Every structure is written in C-alpha cells, then in structure tokens.
Amino acid sequence: MGTLNHLSFGWLTPAVSYLMACVGAALGLRCTLRALSATGPSRRNWLLTAAAAIGSGIWTMHFIAMFGFSVDGTELRYDVPLTVLSLVVAVVVVGIGVFTVGYGRHRGRSLLLGGLTTGVGVAAMHYLGMAALRLHGNVEYTPATVLLSVAVAVGAATAALWAAVTIRNAVAAGGAALVMGVAVSCMHYTGMAAVHVHMDPSRTELGGATPMQFVFPLAVGLGSFLFLTSAFVALSPTAQERAAYREAGELAIEDLNPTELDRAA
After folding, report:
1. Which contiguous run of DSSP H or E holds residue 71?
2. Where are the domains of the chain?
3. Which helix (H) or strand (E) holds 78?
4. 3-state secondary structure of 5
C-alpha cells in the first residue's frame, strides 16, 4: 500500500485552497442575494453567475488542495476530459441548486432540495476529480468515510443556501462565506481520508497531463475569474441603490426652476 501525503507543500495548499473556497462562496452568496431582489432575465443572470462562482470556487479549491497530495513511489497525472467534466458537473449541479432556491415558492422545501442537489453535486465533482487521477496503482475508498464526506457536502451546501436567502448584513455574509470555506475544505479532506492506494509497479504508462501542464493553468484562470467577478459585483449597485439613485435624480429635476430646465435642455 502506498504512503499518502496530503501536505507535500506544508500548509500552503490548504490555506490557498481555503481562500479560493471562501471567495467562491462569498461571490455566490452575494449573487444569489442579488437574484432574490431581481426579476425576469436579471434574476436568471445573477443565479447563473452564482452557480459559476460557487461551482468554480469549489473545483479550484479541490485541485489546489490536490497539489499537496502525493503518493510515495509514483507520479500523479490527470485525465483531461474527466477533469473538465468534474468542473462542468460542479457548475451545472450547483446551478440546479441555486435555481431551485431562486425560483422555489416554498422556502423551506426549496432549501432542503437545493442543498441536497448541490451537496451531492459537490461530492460528485470531488470523486470525478479523483477518478481523473492517474498513478502507478489502484485507488480504493472506505465506504463509511465516503458517505460522511457526502453528508458534510450536503450540510455545507444547505447552510450556504440558507445564508444566501436569510443574511442581509454584509459582515454576516462575509462570516457565512468563511464558514462555508471551512465546510468545503472539511468535505475535501474527509473524502481524501477515505482514499487508499494499492501500488502496482507494472503499470508503466499513466497517460494524461501533469498538474503543472493542465490543472495549474486552469485553476489560475478560474481564480482570476472569481477575483475579477467579485470586484465587479462589489462595485455594481444593488436594486435598492439604483432605485435610490433614480429617486434622487427625480427630486433633483423637480427642484430645478423652469429657466434652469430650459437651460439644461
């Protein structure tokens, strides 16, 4: 059995992966909150952004954490199509969850269904990502620990969606994102605790891409997307702020006398 190391670079990879999980959660919560105060295409667009943020944040967290994973006696490679599929699954299933909450009529039922769907999707992303792993051996799992990781994912997703529809204060929302980052990280390392590798030296051809060839550039790209989108969302006015701007503009026009209005025209 191969010796596993989850901290090959010390605490750097857990810390950076936790940061990415927090950024994705914070952006997703903010976008979901914006969606609930919007209507029509605007609500749909905010929910799509929330799904992309949460899904890509969780995916980036997983693969940055995987940079710290090593197995004695073998190199690690990743199957490219399966790795991309794990990202697509994360975004699509999280999207189903946030749309369930965004358009659900019964809040409690929508939260439970959305949390279950999103949590199972997060777990599916994790284990698809692990299925993409190529090494000189066979990867096996402890079933009870796998079930525990799925339960953690469902709990984390439900808590995040609850926070998105309940918390209105920016400071509290930031705290919820930090808690969500902890929960997602716990899900990842719980799932990794279920892993056992039985070495098979006869397997010489691994195939796939090394982490630096494929996963690292994609993770950096998604991380940049999260930070830039976070800045855009933070700077864009809310529906209440836009309404206040319109009201202030109307009051300013009413305060102008007829001569000033002619001059402005």
Report:
1. strand 70-71
2. 4-237
3. strand 77-78
4. strand
Rounded to the nearest integer, the mean pLDDT of the chain is 78
CA distance 193 to 195: 5
142: pLDDT strictly greater than 50: yes
DSSP string, 169-218: -HHHHHHHHHHHHHHHHHHHHHHHHTEEEEE-TT-----SB-IIIIIHHH
Q: Are 100 and 156 in contact (CB under 8 A)?
A: no
In the chain, how long is the greatest CA-to-CA distance?
91
Identify the pLDDT of residue 243: 47
Spell out the alpha helix ranges (H) of the chain.
Answer: 12-36, 40-66, 80-103, 107-131, 143-166, 170-193, 216-235, 239-255, 258-264
Average pLDDT rounded to a whole number, residues 120-133: 88
Distance CA 188, CA 182 (A): 10
What pLDDT, on the 0 to 100 scale, is given for residue 87? Answer: 87
